Amino acid sequence: MRFAGRKVVVMGGSRGIGLAIAMGFAAEGAAVAICARGAEALEVARREIAGHGGRVFAAPCDLAEAEQIARFVPEAAASLGGIDILVNNASGFGMTDDEAGWAASIGVDVMAVVRASHAALPFLEAAEGAAIVNIASISGLRASTRSLPYAAVKAAVINYTMSQAATLAPKRIRVNAISPGSIAFPGGLWEQRKETNPKLYEATLASIPFGRFGTAEEIAEVAMFLGSPAARWVTGQNIVVDGGQML
């Protein structure tokens, strides 16, 4: 039980990578808080996490709305008894190079990270061995012709992670990022694209040297490492988890 007694907040935890991260921490003894926009999916996730052991707090929160983040984070801290680890996972998936695409990406992928980090900071400062894990993407490491806003904001998250790490090191708070490659899970983007854009699906699959898409659990395991004492001397890093896709 590596995380017995630890308190973990996952921003965007009702499905996919966020849910896998919350379940992984809960299974290792942590008390976990999750949020998402949809109350129904959130309740399903809460029950699933509770089934893996540990205490779970779940509340709806639109991560594009500053006041909702400002409300949820203190509520989560009050329920858990503090915050030791903050995981910023949500994405607005702004893919189109227009006002709507950029607004979705900036509002959630960037500003939700900033706002949640600021809201959690007083609790992280009071914790021992505190850590922030930001979920970025390999899209932030290269040019994109399909998803310009998404790639740009993930690059911003990677840079912000480094700046956060340098700023918060004197407070003994570590900050790292994970850049997943193409991850498939039920109801996720790649499952949808398998049906709607099989040509892109097959081309992406062919670009991964291991010959398969990654799983949400494989990202969760790296997040758990970064939140653990095993990574106590790791900060300001962006860990690529992609099965060699960037190669």
From TrEMBL:
GO molecular function: oxidoreductase activity, acting on the CH-OH group of donors, NAD or NADP as acceptor
Organism: Acidiphilium cryptum (strain JF-5)
Entry similarity comment: Belongs to the short-chain dehydrogenases/reductases (SDR) family.
Superkingdom, natural source: Bacteria
Segments traversing the membrane: none
Any single biological process term in GO: fatty acid elongation
Pfam families: adh_short_C2
InterPro entries assigned to the protein according to its UniProt record, in alphabetical order: NAD(P)-bd_dom_sf, SDR_fam
SUPFAM superfamilies per the UniProt record, alphabetical: NAD(P)-binding Rossmann-fold domains
UniProt xrefs under PANTHER family: 3-OXOACYL-[ACYL-CARRIER-PROTEIN] REDUCTASE, CHLOROPLASTIC (PTHR42760:SF40), SHORT-CHAIN DEHYDROGENASES/REDUCTASES FAMILY MEMBER (PTHR42760)
Name of the protein: Short-chain dehydrogenase/reductase SDR
